[in-house]
Design a protein that fits this description.
There is one protein chain. This protein has 474 residues and is mainly α. It has one domain: Sodium/glucose cotransporter (Up-down Bundle), CATH 1.20.1730.10. It contains 19 helices and no strands. The relative contact order is 0.19.
């Protein structure tokens, strides 16, 4: 073991404590409305924190500093798109989710197009979310192998099992309130890491900023228009806007939190507030990468196997004092468990309402089936976490971006084209996803453009196919 007994105790205390805290919500999760929507009782600020904790993962916390370490602050251009998208969603999609008693995003598609479209969208969500979450869980293994000097499988199994336990028991209430605790913990850990680096660099911030500026690390904006570069102003703001419109407006993991708000107004406040927190958070993670670069100019900084995703955890294990190492490692675990719990609950809700017929079942039987679905998805995510995914942050974003264009496109088709029908929507949806798979395999177009391109194809093909279907019936 590479960390000391004090740090190990802190990590262990966190893992046990957060699990017990989540399990205590079992008594408040005895109906489907409680289990999947938290009884719609959570305040907007708690939901905002839950949204942030859910879109943040271990791969974000270790992958974002790696991006700045290798490059600069250009990733913030993508985060600008995250902010723009939230405002658009408050106008376009959020109001529609409060025009009925919805448990999933795809029930809105059923209302507009029919059962087949709902199930097609839900199936794509289930597959995409499971794969993307597998990447995120795999990132935990990188941290644990650095911290404990052991293999990754046992740690992945432990995190998956504990997260499954409190999500199974406490449902959405457990997810939201444990998210709040975990957000507080990982932001505290990240700020602590920043000040530790500041202390370790000779000359402090003036020296760090001088080194970073000389290396172009503070460069943010790149106004070059390119379809093959991931982080430019155009791919960031435009691509980031469409990526977030899809992730926060059509992905059940995020929409479920919006649906858990007390009202439409609270849902909008939570969504916008989460954007502000996310911007601050990504700026902090990127600055950690810049500081690591400056530190590396004065001291030997190990890059295990040339994998820059391991730089941040490696620094923490080697340089942080006893106690602080445990806090920061616990915060990395917190990110992983927060993300996994939200994914488990959303995967179970979509399985239950979008694919599980359950006709004639009593509420107790439906709740039992929902918890069984949570368990099944916990096993699946744990297994996917054992797969080797490469550079974790971009791997996770790329997987999601391939299908998000089709999902966003079909939602916008139903919103903007009143003459669109289920046949056209299904054809457009399929064409949108197929087009991005082709783009991924046959071109070098950056993943930040995938959602925009997929949305355009889905809207265009869906509109044309709907028109032709209407003509065929007349």
């Amino acid at each position: 073991m590479r960390i000391g007994p004090i740090d190990f105790s802190i990590v262990l205390l966190y893992l046990v404590g957060i699990t017990l805290f989540g399990v205590r919500f079992y008594r408040n999760s005895q109906s489907l409305r409680d289990y999947f929507l938290g009884g719609r009782s959570a305040p907007w600020w708690a939901i905002a924190c839950s949204i942030v904790a859910t879109e943040t993962s271990t791969l974000t916390m270790i992958g974002t500093p790696a991006i700045a370490y290798e490059g600069n602050l250009g990733f913030l251009q993508l985060v600008l798109g995250y902010l723009v998208a939230r405002v658009i969603l408050c106008v376009v999609l959020v109001p529609q989710y409060f025009q009925g008693e919805f448990y999933t995003a795809y029930q809105l598609l059923e209302k507009r197009f029919g059962l087949r479209m709902k199930r097609a969208a839900a199936l794509v969500f289930l597959l995409t979310r499971a794969l993307a979450e597998g990447v995120r869980i795999a990132a935990v293994g990188k941290v644990v192998s650095v911290a404990f000097g052991t293999g990754e499988r046992a740690s992945i199994a432990l995190v998956a099992a504990l997260t499954l336990l409190y999500t199974f028991a406490g449902g959405m209430r457990a997810v939201i309130w444990t998210d709040l605790v975990q957000l507080t913990l990982y932001l505290t850990g990240s700020f602590a890491a920043f000040f530790l680096l500041l202390h370790k660099i000779p000359g402090g911030w003036p020296e760090a900023s001088y080194i970073a500026a000389a290396a172009g690390k503070f460069h943010v904006f790149d106004f070059t228009f390119s379809l093959t570069r991931s982080y430019t102003f155009w791919s960031g703001t435009i691509g980031g806007t469409f990526l977030t419109m899809a992730s926060h407006g059509t992905d059940q993991t995020m929409v479920q939190r919006l649906l858990a708000a007390r009202s439409e107004g609270d849902s909008k406040k939570a969504l916008v507030a989460s954007g502000v927190i996310v911007f601050v958070q990504f700026a902090l993670f990127l600055l950690l990468g810049v500081m690591l670069y400056a530190y590396a100019q004065h001291a030997f900084l190990v890059v295990p196997g040339g994998d820059t995703d391991r730089i941040f955890p490696e620094f923490i294990v080697r340089e942080a004092p006893a106690g602080l190492t445990g806090l920061i490692l616990a915060s990395i675990f917190a990110v992983a468990m927060s993300n996994a719990s939200g994914s488990l609950n959303s995967l179970a809700s979509s399985s239950t309402f979008d694919w599980g017929a359950g006709k004639g079942e009593t509420p107790a039987q439906q709740l039992k089936r929902s918890r069984l679905a949570t368990t099944a998805w916990g096993v699946v995510l744990g297994a996917l976490g054992l797969v080797r995914w490469g550079h974790v942050l971009e791997a996770g974003l790329t997987i999601a971006s391939i299908t998000y264009g089709g999902l966003l496109g079909v939602f916008l088709l139903g919103t903007w084209n009143r003459r669109a029908n289920q046949t056209g929507a299904l054809i457009g949806f399929t064409a949108g996803i197929a087009s991005i798979v082709a783009v991924r395999l046959a071109t070098h177009i950056a993943f930040t453009w995938y959602v925009l391109l997929g949305t355009i194809v889905t809207l265009a093909v869906g509109s044309i196919a709907s028109h032709q279907a209407l003509q065929a019936t007349n």
